[in-house]
Amino acid sequence: MGHLDHAAYGWLTPALSYVMASIGAALGLRCTVRALAATGRSRRNWLITAASAIGTGIWTMHFVAMLGFSVTGTRIHYNVPLTILSLLVAMTVVGAGVFAVGYGKDRGRALVLGGLTTGLGVASMHYLGMAALRLHGRISYDPLTVGISVAIAVVAATAALWAALNIKSPLAVAVASLVMGAAVSSMHYTGMMAVGVTVTPSDAALPGATAMQFIFPLAVGLGSYLFITAAFVALSPTADERAASAHARRLGEGATAH
Fold first, then answer.
1. Any idea what DSSP says for residue 137?
2. If we measure between CA atoms, which residue out of 58, 16, 13, 21 comes closest to residue 177?
3. Which one, of 90, 87, 66, 85, lies nearest residue 210 by Cα?
4. Distant-in-sequence, close-in-space partners of 195: CB < 8 Å, separation ≥ 6
5. Residue 256, H or E segment
6. pTM for the whole structure
7. Distance between CA 240 and CA 176 in Å, rounded?
8. Which of 41, 75, 122, 249 sits most deeply, having the most CB atoms within 10 A of its CB?
9. Per DSSP, what are the bridge partners of residue 196?
């Protein structure tokens, strides 16, 4: 068995991956709060933004953490199409969960369905990302630990959707986001604890791209997207602010008419 190192750069990758997961969760929760206060096309657009933020945050968390993953005795490459597919899966299933909550008439049923769908999707993203690994050897998994990681993903997703439905204040959203970041990170590292690698030493070239060739630039790009989206959300007026502005405008128009 090859020796697995989950933090080859020390605490840098775990800490950075936690930050990315928390930022994605914070953006997703804020966008969902905005969506629930909106109607029509505006609600749909906010929900799409929420899904892309959470999905991007989760995916970036996973692969930033994977930058610190190494196995003694073999290099590691990544299959590019499978890696991109894992990103699409993350965004799609999170979108399904967010839309279930955003449009569901029965909030309790929507929460259970959305949490289950999103949690299984997050787990699928993780293990698709693991399936994209190319190394000299064979990867195996401990079924019990895999099951625990999937359960953590479902619970974390359900808690995130519950927070989106019930938490409104910015401070509460911030606290919930930190908790969600910890839950997503726990799911990732629990899943990684399930991994075992039997190394077969070889000098043959590995297919795919190295983490620095592909994962790092993509993670930086998606991280930039999260920060730009954060600025957009911060600068966009809330429903209360729009209502107050409209009220002030009506008062001004009434005063002018008199």
1. E
2. 21
3. 66
4. 4, 130, 139, 140, 141
5. helix 239-257
6. 0.82
7. 22
8. 122
9. 140
In angstroms, rounded to a whole number, what is the distance separating the alpha carbons of residues 63 and 190?
A: 15
DSSP 3-state assignment of 48? helix
Q: How far apart are CA 243 and CA 246, in angstroms?
A: 5
Is 80 buried (19+), middle (13-18) or exposed (0-12) by CB count in 10 A?
middle
C-alpha torsion sign, points 177, 97, 92, 14: positive
Residue whose token pair is 């190192």: 5
Query: What percent of the chain shows pLDDT beyond 90?
Result: 19
Nearest-CA neighbor of 67 among 16, 23, 117? 16
What does the DSSP assignment read for 57-117?
A: HHHHHHHHHHTT-EETTB-EEE-HHHHHHHHHHHHHHHHHHHHHHHH-SSHHHHHHHHHHH
Give me the residues of the chain with pLDDT under 70, please: 1-2, 234-258
State both tokens at 220. Answer: 């930086």
pLDDT number for residue 139: 92
DSSP structure string for 77-88: EE-HHHHHHHHH
Beta bridge partners of 137: 199
From the CB of residue 237, how many other CB atoms can be counted at a distance below 10 Å? 11
Residue range 106-137, pLDDT digits in tens: 778 888 888 888 888 888 889 998 999 999 99
Q: What is the pLDDT of residue 209?
A: 86
- What's the confidence (pLDDT) of residue 241? 47
CB atoms within 10 A of CB 105: 6
Grouping H, G, I as helix, E, B as strand and the rest as coil, residue 215 is helix
Three-state DSSP state, 37: coil
